[in-house]
Amino acid sequence: MSRFEEMKTFVRVVEAGSISKAADQIGIAKSGVSRRLADLEQRLGVKLINRTTRRSSLTEAGDMYYRGAVKLLGDVAELDTSVISEETRLQGT
Asked: By the 8 A CB rule, do 7 and 40 touch?
């Protein structure tokens, strides 16, 4: 799994409010989302989300990672849009 996919999955879990909801939105099994999250936490060496059977909450590290990931993913989307727009402009001339 790429770091980028782990990051996108983590952001989706946070924004969806649960692993189950994120799995439904992404279109993969709940176990797949859990595995991506566990792999990310293992790679970073920190717990990002405190999980219980009833609720989950971001750790301090999770909050920091979430804010950075949202910014980075936004920057990537903006870059994609800029490149596509420029290419379209150049093809039109």
From this structure: yes
